[in-house]
Structure formats: structure tokens, C-alpha cells
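Sanity check. The docking grid for manganese (II) ion depends on where the pocket ends up, so I'm generating a full predicted complex first rather than guessing from homology. Inputs follow.
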Amino acid sequence: MKELLKEQITQHIEELSKYTATLGNGTTRLSYSQEDLKARNYLKGQMEASGLTVREDGFGNIFGKLEGTIEGAPSVLLGSHFDSVPNGGDYDGPAGVVAALEVAHLFQKEGLKPKYPLEVVALVEEEGSRFGGGLMGSRGMTGLLSEEEFKGLQDKDGVSTVEAMKEIGLDPTLPKRREPGTIKSFLELHIEQGPILEEKNIPIGVVEAIVGLTQYQVTVTGQAGHAGTTPMDRRTDALLAASKIISRLPELATEEGNGTVLTVGRMNVYPNGANVIPDKVVFTVDIRSGKEEHVQNVIKNMERTLEEHNDNGIEIEAEQMLYIQPKALNQGIRSLLKEMSSELDTPYCSINSGAGHDAMVFSDVTDVGMLFIPSKAGLSHCPEEWSDARHIAQAVQIFYEAAKKLTEVQS
Ligand code: HGY
Ligand code: MN
Ligand code: MN
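Predicted complex below; grid placement will be based on this.
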């Protein structure tokens, strides 16, 4: 079974990797893009082929459901996201969606009759690459993102979520928020995106906790001017001010210590002309730590740093796009995943997540379990990202055994 499963997984990943706006230079699959639509149609086809009832919600999240024998019972939900960062890898998100597809396929092949429904989900906009913030599909489902906030989101060209959905034929009027009582548990496979499992040569990580994270969008405003005729002492240069701020921010995380990290990952300069003094700079600040107090401290010190530079005509605004506390995952499911790994003679270890995941959002409303598999050279969010289909197959088998218990398959 393993070899066939591995082949099937490889095929899924290869097919999904074609749906990118940057073929040959990593996966760029933004939410509600043409690449999203192609991946969406593929995933829906695979769900239907496994006998699942397929639907989409008002965010464009895709669900494939195998009904249970208990009428109206909550689902055991498995899945991950299928959007990407710009020029990202083939596995961040899709590894988890593909694993969920294959668990459902095994349920169909074995003719299993679960008491509780088994449901596969492919989530949108986890990365926030198009509309900012991130974890949009799962936050929308759980009510962490309101309908108004969702409708107010726009991409860098001013296209709203609702307009973008309609452009690929999605219906934003479909039900959005999912009643918490309709999810019995949530399982997510994800690539580790770090070096630990590979260095330990262990195929499976059982995730114990996920870091807390926040993301800000900072706007620095100055005055545009002519690069040649404006004396140096008469400038209000937004890019110069932003550069001074950005050079200081990473030190705030280093000074906080305890594994706290800070990243300025995206920056736009306006009007972006070589002979024009910039009048506006917009950049992002991503702060994470295992303990909430460290995130809070860095936020406080960042705000103080911004205040210090808010002078001489420079104006600074900081908008919080996302804030999620650190999350410990469900003890019962962690134990179940360890037990199933042992029964399958699959080596595993406990691990914490430095990356954010939809699992951390669902942990507010249901019991959540998460498995990691090794990332080659610990690389992710880049075209070099790679994981072994054999490890995905091992995770599928663990989830398959766990899902049989969680859905209370009738023997
Ligand atoms: O940013 C993250 O941790 C995830 O890849 N969205
Ligand atoms: Mn991811
Ligand atoms: Mn990611």
C-alpha cells in the first residue's frame, strides 16, 4: 500500500505545483487567482473521485465530506491551505491537503462507515500574500475575522476579496462562519519548515504547541521632491526614516531573547522613482515568540521606536493586521497521534512550531492535532522547499488510524 500511496501523493504534488504564476521559479498561487482556480478545480475533482460531497463556503474554502451514520454529527476535519507565498515551495500547505485527500481515499477504498463524518478542507489565504494578515480562511470560519473585516480587505491593487472571488466564479454570499459545534476535531499535516526533524533523522513530529504571532503594517509618510534640486537639509525623506526604523527593529527581538523573532518581509516605496525623494513607505513587521509576554514586550518597544522617529515632518502609522496567542494543541489528540505512530512502528518526536498554521486558529473551537514531516535542509517559503512523499505517506497512515478512532468507524 505504501508504494502506491507514495506514487499517488507525488502525482498530487506535481499536479498542484503546475498551478503557479511563476513557473520555474517556485510556487506563486495567490488566493482567487487563475492559479487558485486551477488548483481548486483539481482538488474538487479529487474529492469527488473519493466519493466526497463537495461544497465551497463564502470565503472560497473547499470542503469534501463523507457523511457519518449519526445524523447531523460534527465532522473530523483534516486539511491545510492551498495558497502560497510569492515564489514559495510546492509543499507548504499542499502536503496537508494531499494527506487529507488520501485519508479520505482510504476510507472510500476500505468501504468504511464512520459514525462521525470525515471531512477534508482546503483553506484559502493562510499566507496572507494577497490580502495581508493571513489565516483568513480559518479565521473566517471560526468568526475571528468578521464579515465586515473580510469585505474590507483589498490587495495591493485595491481589488477587494469579494471582487476577486467573483472574478473566478466564487460566490461570496455563501455561508461563511461555521458553527463551532460542527467540528469534532481538526488534524493538519504540515512540513516542518525548519531543520530539526531532518537533523534528528525522524520522519514524524507531533506538534505540542504553536508560537504566538502578530503582524503589523507600518506606513511612513514624508514629502516627495526632486532628487536634484532639493538640498539635503530640506528633505522629509520617507525611505530614509523607514530605513532607520527597520535597522533598529530586529535588535528588539534579539534583546527580548527567548527565541523571539522579528521580520520585515515586505516593503513598498512610493512613488518609487530613481530621481524622486520617496514620500511614502509601507512595510510589514512580523513578530513571534513561544510566550505571549515576549511578543507584547517587542510590540511595546516597536511602538516606542516608531514614536521616536515620528518627527521633522515624518508621520508614522502602525496597523495591527493579525494577532494570535501561542497555542498548546490538544493533549488527547497528541497522545493518540503518538500511539498510532508507535503502533505503525513509525519513529516520532515532539516538536513545537515556529510557523503559524490554521491549526492554531481551529484550536480555539475544537480539539486539534498536527503532524510535521522533515523539510530538506530546513528550507521553506522558497523554490528549494522539498519534502519526501514517503514521509507524507507515513503521516497519511497515522492520520488514517487516528481518523478511524475519532470518527468511530463501525467495525
Ligand atoms: O507565516 C507562517 O508562519 C505561515 O507560513 N503562514
Ligand atoms: Mn503553511
Ligand atoms: Mn507558509
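Relevant for the grid: Residues 2-210+326-410 form a domain with the Aminopeptidase fold (CATH 3.40.630.10).
Also worth noting: The chain has two domains: 2-210+326-410, 212-324.
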